[in-house]
């Protein structure tokens, strides 16, 4: 069998996922990022502890689902915001969180 | 590094909490006797009253029991006060008349009965206790976070191991077929990196190029999101499997014009709805492949029967039958342009770009519980891909088939043009108006009056000529109609 390889005919990889595909592919990290920020603002403004905790979870989920091309700065900022929401809620009101039931 | 930072940050939270709590318990007081500063004023009032004042205060706060217990508590408290008073009063009672104490005769009886009444200890509500046990919700949350992090690390490592196992199994076959294996697009020269390109914690890419017939081949290992705990839990309800997606871009001269797909019925129905080319060229529902000896699970979508006949040769049937459980879909198309784009009416002015492509989607066996060894079973499928590339080059439609294919493509284009006719007309109209306006402006801006007059005359003449042409055309049409 002849060698099918043709070194002269090598084409470079042009990543097709540029303008439309990132949005089509998986919106989870973006949604979770947004949700995390919304919950942490709620937790900070309304002093709701459970909001702040959900914000921490959202930022973790967003991080786990993120693409490698995404900014780590954005991830870290949303993470820090949610941690600060938790800490502020507890500083203002050190009582333990009461379950909703 | 990212993981380490997050891990350390998360550890800080419970540690800071524990520090804050231990400060308050340094002197090791009994929990029952420890009061908030708000209630400290009651501490020194009466030794006997200490155990009961929290009870009284708490029962007053407890709305349900306020009416009944409060009196009891108050009575008991008053009794204590009175006891102390009477004790003190024994020495000082001499200057007082006995008459003054008439109303209090029942009190000593009450104090006796007090000893027989059981002391009801009311449970202090959790939000007023200050032990770390009352923080059980927080502890639950932190445990959940730790579990998530553990799952992230484990899932990421598993995906990584699976990807490398796949690559090690397939490396030889790929390197013998392609000159360039692995390219992340960053190097200036086209050199083989020989490594997978990690896009995500669950998606790995590999670009191979440098072969006869095809421009290049992009392999995407789309694993399950094992690093996301939510996904893991969702998969317990709905099992799914890892997928290997292969997209071979063919050279223009190496593939004839046809659209053909084979795969599981469910996958084909979905593709027919989603993919631009399949929806336009393969209008029939997926047909069963039993005629060619394929198992029932597989169905065929084809532009015309001749293509199916040509594609289903012995070796292809052998591949499809033996590995039917791993095949999700196989699509050969010369009009491939990806999924249907949901665009607004005004934007669709030209057909999307098409490329001659072969697409393969394979399911990794194991339905999620895959081990690195399972990757070896995918090797024959890669051989099928290579065989398909060569076959697509060799397969040519006969004259009839070619005519049909060309007709189909012309039809699709015409439909598209009709749809966008209105938009194109509007666009042409606006362009013409724009030209006129620009010319008028030029005339106005012309300073020399002579030149202005001449330009105006020229524009008028052009308009007249156009009108004449139109009239001629109308006359011709009328004559022809007659």
From TrEMBL, chain A:
InterPro entries recorded: ASTER (IPR005351)
Keywords for the protein's UniProt record, in alphabetical order: Membrane, Transmembrane, Transmembrane helix
Transmembrane segments: none
Subcellular location per the Swiss-Prot or TrEMBL entry: Membrane
Residue stretches of biased makeup (Basic and acidic residues): 1-16
A Pfam family per the record: ASTER
Region (Disordered): 1-26
GO BP terms in the entry: protein insertion into ER membrane
Superkingdom field: Eukaryota
Main localization category: membrane
GO molecular function: protein folding chaperone
Entry GO terms, CC: endoplasmic reticulum membrane
Family listed: Belongs to the Asterix family.
Protein name as it appears in the record: PAT complex subunit Asterix
Organism (species): Ptilonorhynchus violaceus (Satin bowerbird)
Gene: Wdr83os
UniProtKB/TrEMBL annotation, chain B:
Transmembrane segments: none
Keywords: Membrane, Signal, Transmembrane, Transmembrane helix
One GO term (biological process): endoplasmic reticulum calcium ion homeostasis
Membrane topology, record value: Single-pass type I membrane protein
Region (Disordered): 46-117, 422-482
Basic residues compositional bias, start-end: 472-482
Name this protein carries in UniProt: PAT complex subunit CCDC47
Species this protein is from: Ptilonorhynchus violaceus (Satin bowerbird)
The encoding gene: Ccdc47
């Amino acid at each position: 069998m002849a060698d099918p390889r043709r070194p002269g005919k090598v084409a470079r990889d042009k990543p097709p996922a540029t303008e439309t595909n990132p949005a089509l592919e998986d919106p989870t990290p973006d949604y979770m990022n947004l949700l995390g920020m919304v919950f942490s603002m709620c937790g900070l403004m309304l002093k709701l502890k459970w909001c702040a905790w959900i914000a921490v979870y959202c930022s973790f989920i967003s991080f786990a689902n993120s693409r490698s091309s995404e900014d780590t700065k954005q991830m870290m900022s949303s993470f820090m915001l949610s941690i600060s929401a938790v800490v502020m809620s507890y500083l203002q009101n050190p009582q333990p969180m009461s379950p909703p039931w | 590094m990212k993981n380490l930072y997050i891990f350390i940050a998360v550890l800080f939270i419970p540690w800071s909490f524990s520090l804050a709590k231990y400060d308050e318990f340094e002197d090791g007081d009994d929990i029952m006797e420890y009061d908030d500063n708000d209630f400290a004023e009651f501490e020194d009032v009466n030794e006997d009253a200490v155990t009961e004042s929290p009870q009284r205060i708490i029962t007053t706060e407890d709305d349900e029991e306020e009416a009944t217990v409060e009196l009891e508590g108050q009575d008991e408290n008053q009794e204590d006060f009175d006891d102390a008073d009477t004790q003190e009063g024994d020495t000082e009672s001499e200057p007082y008349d006995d008459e003054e104490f008439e109303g209090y005769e029942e009190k000593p009886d009450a104090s006796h009965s007090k000893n027989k009444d059981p002391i009801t200890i009311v449970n202090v509500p959790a939000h007023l206790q200050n032990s770390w046990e009352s923080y059980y919700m927080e502890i639950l949350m932190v445990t959940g976070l730790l579990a998530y992090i553990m799952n992230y690390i484990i899932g990421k490592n598993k995906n990584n191991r699976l990807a490398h196992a796949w690559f090690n199994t397939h490396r030889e076959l790929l390197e013998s077929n392609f000159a360039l294996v692995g390219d992340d697009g960053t190097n200036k020269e086209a050199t083989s990196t020989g490594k997978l390109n990690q896009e995500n914690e669950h998606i790995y890419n590999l670009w191979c190029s440098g072969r006869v017939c095809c421009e290049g081949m992009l392999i995407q290992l789309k694993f399950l999101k094992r690093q996301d705990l939510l996904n893991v839990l969702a998969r317990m309800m709905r099992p799914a499997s890892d997928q290997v997606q292969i997209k071979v871009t063919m050279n223009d001269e190496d593939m004839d014009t046809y659209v053909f797909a084979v795969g599981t019925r469910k996958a084909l129905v979905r593709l027919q709805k989603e993919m631009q080319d399949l929806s336009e060229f393969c209008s029939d529902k997926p047909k069963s492949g039993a005629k060619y000896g394929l198992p029932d699970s597989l169905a065929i979508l084809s532009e015309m029967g001749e293509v199916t006949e040509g594609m289903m040769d012995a070796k292809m049937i052998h591949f499809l039958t033996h590995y039917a459980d791993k095949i999700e879909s196989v699509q050969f198309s010369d009009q491939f342009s990806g999924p249907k784009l949901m665009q607004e009416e005004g934007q669709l002015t030209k057909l999307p770009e098409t490329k001659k492509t072969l697409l393969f989607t394979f399911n990794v066996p194991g339905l999620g519980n895959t081990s690195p060894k399972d990757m070896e079973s995918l090797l024959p499928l890669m051989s099928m891909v290579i065989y398909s590339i060569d076959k697509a080059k060799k397969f040519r439609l006969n004259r009839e088939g070619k005519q049909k294919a060309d007709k189909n493509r012309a039809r699709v284009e015409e439909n598209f043009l009709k749809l966008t006719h209105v938009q194109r007309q509007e666009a042409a109209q606006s362009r013409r108006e724009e030209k006129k306006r620009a010319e008028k402006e030029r005339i106005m801006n012309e300073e020399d009056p002579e030149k202005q007059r001449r330009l105006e005359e020229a524009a008028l003449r052009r308009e007249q000529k156009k009108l004449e042409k139109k009239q001629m055309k109308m006359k011709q049409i009328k004559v022809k109609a007659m």
